[in-house]
Design brief:
This protein is α/β, with parallel strands linked by helices and about 210 residues long. It has helices spanning about 5-15, 40-50, 70-80, 100-110, 155-160; strands spanning about 60-65, 90, 125, 135-140, 165, 180-185, 195-200. About 20% of the residues lie in helices and about 20% in strands. Strands 1-7-6-2-5-4-3 form a 7-stranded mixed sheet. It is globular and about 40 Å long. Its main location: cytoplasm.
């Protein structure tokens, strides 16, 4: 079976040069985006405090209380046991709420040794066997300026044999990945986290508290 680095290289070769880079190096913004970002802060602060999305039609919604960081990572570890190729896990919530902690717990349970880096600068951090049990793309869309830019990442092309774990999925637009398991974190006054999960019909019987 191919190593993780070769799997990552195969995925990256098909991507736009705008996003592709050697593993571990940050991506540089395109000229079109260079110089932008001024004035984006207000919009991103709005996303930080956005209300919960409407419940999914035919889906199920529940709320969990997570007392601390280990409890947040444990959610990811439990989720890892239920994943299948083609799944999308959408992680929403304000900065520092624990989205990356869930992703790290998930990747550790899939076999990743050491702490997974945040994909904030890389945009997409790929993992593949034997590093993890099944291919995973850990994605952070926070720096995207327009939902159309998601197409350039080639994420849907990878869904056939991979799992997408997407932070800031709202930046991709409201209608992308309708069958995603949506996990939304908020910070409680005492520092605990409230996790609202919305499971679509495609997840019936797989994800429950």
């Amino acid at each position: 079976m191919a190593g993780a680095s070769s799997w990552s290289a195969r995925w990256a070769r098909g991507r736009s040069s705008r996003w592709s880079c050697r593993e571990g190096e940050p991506h540089s913004p395109s000229p079109r985006r260079a110089g932008r970002g001024q004035g984006r802060g207000a919009e991103r602060r709005r996303l930080d405090t956005a209300p919960l999305p409407d419940p999914l039609p035919g889906g199920k919604r529940e709320v969990l209380r997570l007392a601390d960081a280990p409890a947040t990572e444990a959610v990811g570890a439990e989720l890892a046991l239920k994943l299948r190729p083609g799944d999308v896990v959408a992680l929403s919530g304000p900065l520092g709420a624990g989205k990356t902690s869930i992703a790290r717990g998930l990747l550790a349970a899939l076999g990743l040794e050491g702490e997974a880096p945040s994909p904030s600068f890389a945009i997409v951090q790929p993992y593949g066997p034997p590093e993890v049990r099944l291919p995973v793309l850990h994605v952070d869309l926070y720096r995207l300026d327009d939902p159309d830019e998601v197409e350039e990442l080639g994420l849907d092309d990878a869904l056939g044999d991979s799992v997408l774990v997407v932070e800031w999925p709202e930046r991709a637009g409201p209608d992308r990945w309708p069958d995603a398991l949506r996990l939304t974190l908020s910070i409680e006054p005492d520092g605990a986290r409230a996790l609202t999960w919305d499971a679509p019909a495609a997840w019936e019987g797989r994800w429950s508290t």
